[in-house]
Specification:
By secondary structure, the chain is mostly helical. The chain contains nine helices and three strands, in the order E-H-E-H-E-H-H-H-H-H-H-H. Helices cover about 50% and strands about 5% of the residues. The protein has a three-stranded parallel β-sheet with strand order 1-2-3, with helices on one face. Bound molecules: flavin mononucleotide (FMN).
Length: about 200
């Protein structure tokens, strides 16, 4: 029906409406739907790492993938996934300097296109950009109240200077501690731990 109405492609969320964001996305829907239609089918649901992205293509015959929560405060997933596909090697996580550079640019664009509303809307990204870094909660709490771009930029670079001065620029990724979970989204990891 969607195809007959002229859709060029369809993205499948792989969860029912009742599930919301709970449970695990059921990727088996992809091949069932592929059998019924001729337009490209885009797999969506639970792609949090480059390895998940590869698994999505390996385990289903999807034509493309769509990443939702996995890119919130973590746009690096796209480049890292591309690199992983090209080389077969999982690239290193970006360091704090790169994260802050990108975050500053990102929030600047949010303000440019949507004004102060864009800055407020942007708040959901901070935790992703700073996840795993020492005392990130403190700076995040301040960022959640800031509206002015110059203040946000200052808070982020002050935080960088602080971690540099105390030699704590490294991060501990949950996915390195528990590699079998194959996921670096903190909430998702906690949820999987509960389910284990
Ligand atoms: C903040 C946020 C906003 C979303 N907004 C929409 C939306 O407007 N329309 C929609 O169809 N899905 C929306 N979704 C659902 C996502 O498109 C996606 O289907 C869902 O997050 C599952 O994919 P993921 O596991 O990659 O996050 C949203 C999800 C999040 C986290």
């Amino acid at each position: 029906m969607i195809e007959q109405a002229g859709a060029a492609a369809i993205a499948i969320h792989c969860r029912t409406r009742d599930m919301g964001m709970t449970g695990k996305a059921d990727w088996s829907y992809i091949s069932k739907i592929k059998e019924l239609i001729d337009i490209p089918v885009i797999l969506n649901g639970d792609i949090m790492t480059p390895q998940d992205a590869k698994r999505a293509f390996d385990e289903t015959n999807c034509d493309a993938i769509m990443i939702g929560r996995g890119c919130i405060g973590y746009p690096f997933i796209f480049k890292r996934t591309q690199e992983y596909f090209n080389t077969g090697i999982v690239p290193n996580e970006p360091g704090l300097k790169e994260r802050i550079e990108v975050c500053v640019e990102h929030v600047k664009m949010a303000e440019k296109y949507k004004g102060s509303h864009g800055v407020v809307e942007f708040r959901k990204h901070y935790s992703g950009y700073l996840k795993g870094f020492f005392e990130a909660t403190n700076v995040r709490q301040k960022l959640m109240k800031a509206i002015e771009f110059s203040e946000i930029e200052g808070l982020l670079w002050d935080y960088y200077s602080y971690l540099e001065s105390i030699d704590r620029l490294e991060t501990v990724q949950k996915s390195n501690i528990i590699p079998e979970l194959n996921c670096n989204n903190e909430k998702y990891v906690k949820k999987q731990l509960i389910e284990m």
